[in-house]
Amino acid sequence: MAPRVRDRRIENEWEFLCNAQRRFSTILELLGKQASPDGDSFCFVLHETSGLVEIDRRKILLCSHRAEIRFPRFFPYVPTEIRLDRPIFHPNVDPSNGFVCLWTRFAVEDTVVTALQRLQKVIAWELINQDPRHVIQPAAIDWYNIRSREYSLPLPYTPIPNMDPLVTKHAPTPLQRRSRLS
101: which residues sit within 8 A by CB, 6+ positions away? Predict the structure, then answer.
C-alpha cells in the first residue's frame, strides 16, 4: 500500500528541517519528532532569535526558544501549529500555553521552514497582527503602542534564509525555443 499524502508530506517536511539544521546549525537545533493518533510533531530550539518574556511585570530578553511544531490530523489541508515551551510576551502568543498565532492566511504549499521564518518574525516583534481575532495578549498591544519602550523593535535575530525545496541547486537550463519568423 502506498503511503498517504499526509505521511509522505510529513516525512518530506522532516527531511527539509534536517537539511535546514545542517545548513544553519547555529540557528536551528532539532530535538526529535513524535507521532500520535491526533497528529505528529517536531521539537526544536530556535537560537539567535531575540524575544521578550515577562517576569514580575518586567520584560527580559531571551535569545533561544524551545518549541514544538504540530501537524494536525488533517495536515496538509489545515495549517501547522506552533507552541513555545516558554511563552513570550507578544500580542499573538498565548501566555498560558505558548500557542503562536502564525497564519492570517494559509496555503497548502507553506512548509515547515516557512513556519519557522514566521515564528522568528513573531518572536522578534517584526510580525504583529493587531486584528482583534488574532490578539491573545492585549497588554502586549498596549506596550507595543507606547513610544517609550525599554526595547526598540524589531528585536535582533538571525533569519533562516529561504529554502525552496522545489528548486534544486543544479536545475536544468531551459531549452531555447526558436522564434517564428513569419
Answer: 92, 93, 129, 134, 136
